[in-house]
Amino acid sequence: MTQGRLDVVGLGISIPRHTSKFTESQIRHADQVYYLVGHPVAEEYIEGLNPKARSLQRHYHEQSSRPKSYRAMTDEVVSAVAAGQRVVLALYGHPNVFASISKWSVNEVRTLGLPAQNHPGIGADGCLMADLNIDPGNRGMCHFEAGFLAMFQVPPTPHCYMVLWQIAVAGDTSCTSFEGEASQRQVLVDKLLKYYPQDHPVCLYEAATLPVTEPRMDWVALKNLASAPMKQYTTAVMPPCEALQPDEEALARLGATVDDIREKISNRS
User: Fold this and answer.
1) I want to staple 164 with a disulfide (CB 3.0 to 4.6 A). Which of 103, 202, 220, 236 is the partner?
2) Cis peptide before 16 (omega within 30 of 0)
3) Which domain, by its residues, includes 22?
4) Per DSSP, which regions of 41-155 are E strands?
5) CA–CA dist 258, 187 (Å, integer)
């Protein structure tokens, strides 16, 4: 029997504009393609590359929760690889960002002693930095799943840009909602208000998924964040609110002074 193989590819956010030639080649030459995308145009594009392409979207409707959906998707992908097929799993954005199915599938295929590889794609983070003109090398950038920040004793990072993924369902513990509730999001907002002013600006960001559409970049005050309109793929971006403070002990060990790094501080203000 032919040895199975799994390649997980990222299609990018704006499909096919973000889709690489390498990814297209992987899809064309696969024995079986499974995909998850959010637009009919993207579905038509993938099925045009390989008539054997099959959407995994139905699992969201057949299962009672998102974790069960991801489990069913993973089982379908791994079973095809175990049967000796060269399988491509094509996911929108970057395939390993907020995508349990890719990580589970790769790990389980490797456990079977079969080859499995993730291949990167343009994710929402790359789109975000381009659209908002943010250089993470300037003040730094910290990423959190919004619910993780709300429910664990993890402090926010007001000295750098903070990106909150899946803000709409922050506080949802059912794993069944795609929209969440304002009362649940308010728990996160109340935590953030301990570190940020109530009028601190927050950008509600949604990357453009088609070449003819524009990204969403709506600014709201932190105090109004919980009740602001948002979708399951909305991301909240919070600029820094604290000035950078030099670490004088570290500078002394480096034989430097605050004056020596004043230009660096100025460039990061």
Assistant:
1) 236
2) yes
3) 5-122
4) 53-55, 86-91, 116-119, 141-145
5) 39
